[in-house]
Each structure stands twice: as structure tokens, then as C-alpha cells.
Design brief:
Layout: E1 2-5, H1 12-15, H2 24-53, H3 64-73, H4 76-94, E2 102-106, E3 109-117, E4 120-124, H5 133-146, E5 150-155, H6 165-173, E6 178-181, H7 184-193, E7 203-205, H8 210-219, E8 225-226, E9 234-239, H9 245-256, E10 263-268, H10 271-285, H11 291-298, E11 302-305, H12 309-319, E12 323-327, H13 331-335, E13 343-346, H14 352-357, E14 383-391, H15 393-409, H16 413-429
Parallel strand pairs: 1-11, 4-5, 4-7, 5-6, 7-8, 9-10, 9-12, 10-11, 12-13
Antiparallel strand pairs: 2-3, 3-14
Helix pairs in contact: 2-7, 2-8, 3-6, 4-5, 4-6, 5-6, 7-8, 9-10, 15-16
């Protein structure tokens, strides 16, 4: 980690610059694959699955028998852990259900808004070196609560043409309706276009590598909605002298082990803390199976000392981290001033991994600074909202002249006439 002591404010953006993540140079390559899928359908899906995943798949759909077999292979302790986590995630997302409220804006004019689930959603779950069965819970549970009729899941097969058993267990536990052995760009293309047995969905969710992200952005131009733009995983830790260096190091490493392009940031007003954290990083790194990956990520990471808490807050709000841990004595007071972050973890005993797995909040979050304008996945991500209005004869008499005046001022005479005819009819009946 590079360390900066009270750097000038104008340098903050450069100091915290993320590892280069641009889909521009991938765009042509990914677009070629998507076009091939559009033109050649299931043959193209099988071709790219063989090329990128090393296995030729005859039947892309996962059968009920395969799900049953996989569920038998999952350790009972893991099943219990997944079930407990699912329950917490469900509780949290059920709390987001909103009630329809009818509002009379003017006498005789009633308006209301109704939440309607997106019919078909597609979930992408990576299955590489770290098969993310937890992502199944995070994406499928709110989809189920929202009332999505079809929940389609794509995840890459292994060299034997099988899906990680924990992924299949989680999928059947939370009500996924269809599962396919598809990864990478081909999975995104299949769900965006509707290829063979893979249904065309209305919105695609889920993380992935740079190729998956490029594919999601490309299909979102004209074919399907997506959850959010995203890049490599990241965490920022705000800490003072009350923080535990071992905890901080563990939290930083929990993100660093995701991939070499992940970024971790430590911001503190305690000059001595950085040295203690670095010592812990060295010690804990030696125990990690993914040490090499984490070391590469740490090379992209920074520690920043700022004497004023206000400056620490400003820096974090400018950075807009995916995950933010506030390990400070007055963490609740500091948290109130955070405006840009995907998910915030408060106090010494709230690790980021709690949100990744089991506390209840969603771990599908905006990265790469998108927390300035995007929320993480939540119940509303699976919902569209339709407005309704009902106007009585008395209501149109009250509001009609207002509409006529505004329409005439915008030179939209047909708009004005739609009101005028109604008012004339009411007048003639008197």
C-alpha cells in the first residue's frame, strides 16, 4: 500500500484513481460474440461455452434431477448456513415492500402509484475460482418477494459440465425457476435475446468479469435493462485510534482476494495506525490461499492520513466506495455525513463479509464510483411503478381551466381541446 500524509485536496482524485477498467477496448470483441449469438443461436452458445469453459454442453438447461443430485452433495453445515443467511436476506428485503397510497391532489382528482414486478429477470452468477452461491441469494430473494414470474439463472459449468452444488442448492431454496449452464458473454447474450430454451428476460442482474460487464452494457443499449454499471470490487476503511489493526487488515484482505484489479483504501487520522495495519497485512497474507491475488490488489491500494475528520468524510464522499467500514469511536455521527457509498459497515465488530453473506443487506453494489448516482440492488430494482389517476366531472371542472391555460401557452391545441370538449359536455348537461 502507498501511504500519503495530509495530501493536498486537489490531489485526492489522482491518489484514489481506480485500476484502469474500460470496456472500450473490449467492445468490438464482445460485440462480435453477441452478434454471432444473435445470428447462430444455440450453436454459438455451445461454441463459446466449449471455447471459454472447456466443455461441450449438449443440454444447456439444468434438469430437476441434476438439482436433486447437487443438493445431496452439499455439506449439511453449509446448507444450514445458507438457509439462515437466506432468512435474514428475506427479512431485510421484505421490509422494503411499500403500500399503495391514494392522494387527492385537488378536489375530484385522485392519483396513486402501484408497484408492479418485472415479469422476467435474468440473474448472472459467476462460477470461476470463487463460485458465488451467496449471489444467488442476493439476486433471487428480492426477485421472489417482488413477484417476478420468471427468475432465470445462468452460471458457467465446470470442466465436467456441472454446476457448483452450492449454487444449485441456493437456487432451489429461493425459488429460481430456470437454470442454465452458461457463463460469460454467451450467458448475457442468451438472456438478452432469448436463444433456444433460454427465455428473453426484461432485466439482467449480477456481477462478472470485464467481458460480462461489457456485454451487459452493450445489450442494455437496445435489448434489455441491467442492474447497474460495475467494475472490480473495492472497500474503504475509515479508522481512528480506537480501531483494531488486525480487524482492518482482515477487512482489506477480504476485498483484495476478490481479484488483482480490486482496490482497498484506508483513511485515518491516526498516524501510527498505518504501520500496525501493514504489519497485520503481512502476517495475514501468509495464511491466505489467494495470497498472490491479494498482493496484486494491494499494489493498487492506498493509505491516507488526514488529521481532520471532516477531510476524511469529504475524501470518502468523493471516492464513493462500494463498501465503507467506519471503525471510529463516533461512527454513528460520521455515518450521518456519508452521502456516497454502496453499503456502510459500522463499528469494530461489523465486518464487510457480514454484508457479503448473511446480515441481510444486499451485496450487489455499485463500484467504480457509481455509488454517487446508483443504489445497490434492492426490492425496487425488480419493480416498475405505474401511476394512475381518476378525475370526476367536478374535478375536471376545477382543474380543466388550469390545463387549458397551460396547453394554450405551449401551443398544443389538441391538448387543450381534450379538456374543452369535456367541460362543454358538462356545461350542456346543466
Amino acid at each position: 500500500m502507498k501511504t500519503y500524509i495530509n495530501p493536498n485536496r486537489i490531489t485526492w482524485d489522482d491518489i484514489l484513481k481506480r485500476p484502469l477498467f474500460s470496456v472500450a477496448e473490449l467492445r468490438d470483441r464482445v460485440q462480435d460474440i453477441l452478434t454471432d449469438i444473435q445470428n447462430n443461436g444455440v450453436d454459438a452458445l455451445r461454441k463459446y461455452t466449449e471455447k471459454f469453459d472447456g466443455v461441450l454442453i449438449s443440454n444447456l438447461a439444468v434438469s430437476p434431477e441434476e438439482v436433486d443430485e447437487a443438493c445431496q452433495l452439499v455439506d449439511s453445515n453449509l446448507k444450514e448456513a445458507i438457509t439462515i443467511a437466506a432468512g435474514n436476506i428475506q427479512k431485510f428485503h421484505e421490509s422494503q415492500v411499500s403500500q399503495t397510497k391514494r392522494i387527492e391532489t385537488t378536489s375530484g382528482v385522485t392519483c396513486w402509484q402501484k408497484a408492479v414486478a418485472i415479469d422476467k429477470v435474468g440473474l448472472y452468477v459467476p462460477g470461476g475460482s470463487a463460485p458465488l452461491f451467496s449471489t444467488v441469494l442476493m439476486l433471487a430473494i428480492p426477485a421472489k418477494i417482488a413477484g417476478c414470474k420468471e427468475i432465470v439463472l445462468c452460471t458457467p459449468p465446470d470442466k465436467d459440465g456441472k454446476i457448483n452444488p452450492a449454487i444449485l442448492f441456493a437456487a432451489q431454496l429461493v425459488g429460481v425457476t430456470k437454470i442454465f449452464k452458461l457463463g460469460g458473454v454467451q450467458a448475457i447474450g442468451a438472456m438478452a435475446y432469448g436463444i433456444d430454451c433460454v427465455p428473453k428476460v426484461n432485466k439482467i442482474f449480477g456481477p462478472g468479469n470485464q467481458y460480462v460487464m461489457a456485454a451487459k452494457q452493450l445489450v442494455s443499449i437496445s435489448d434489455v435493462a441491467i442492474d447497474m454499471p460495475a467494475g472490480p470490487s473495492e472497500v474503504a476503511v475509515m479508522a481512528d485510534s480506537t480501531a483494531n489493526p488486525a480487524f482492518i487488515a482482515a477487512d482489506l484482505l477480504s476485498q483484495a482476494e476478490h481479484g488483482p484489479d480490486s482496490q482497498v483504501v484506508l483513511v485515518t487520522n491516526d498516524h501510527s495506525l498505518i504501520e500496525k495495519v501493514v504489519q497485520e497485512l503481512t502476517s495475514q497474507l501468509n495464511e491466505l490461499p489467494r495470497q498472490t491475488i491479494a498482493e496484486k490488489a494491494l499494489a493498487n491500494s492506498q493509505a491516507v492520513v488526514l488529521d481532520r475528520v471532516e477531510d476524511m468524510i469529504d475524501l470518502i464522499n468523493g471516492y464513493a466506495p462500494e463498501h465503507l467500514i467506519i471503525a471510529m469511536e463516533n461512527y454513528l455521527e460520521v455515518a450521518e455525513k456519508i452521502t456516497n457509498a454502496g453499503s456502510v459497515f459500522l463499528g469494530n465488530y461489523t465486518p464487510e463479509s457480514a454484508g457479503d453473506y448473511a446480515s441481510g443487506t444486499n451485496h450487489t453494489l455499485p463500484t467504480n464510483g457509481w455509488a454517487r448516482s446508483f443504489s445497490g440492488v434492492n426490492l425496487d430494482s425488480y419493480i416498475k411503478k405505474i401511476t394512475f389517476q381518476e378525475i370526476t366531472p367536478e374535478g375536471i371542472q376545477t382543474l380543466g381551466p388550469v390545463i387549458e391555460t397551460m396547453a394554450a401557452a405551449e401551443l398544443l391545441d389538441a391538448h387543450k381541446n381534450a379538456v374543452t370538449l369535456r367541460l362543454r359536455e358538462i356545461s350542456n348537461k346543466k
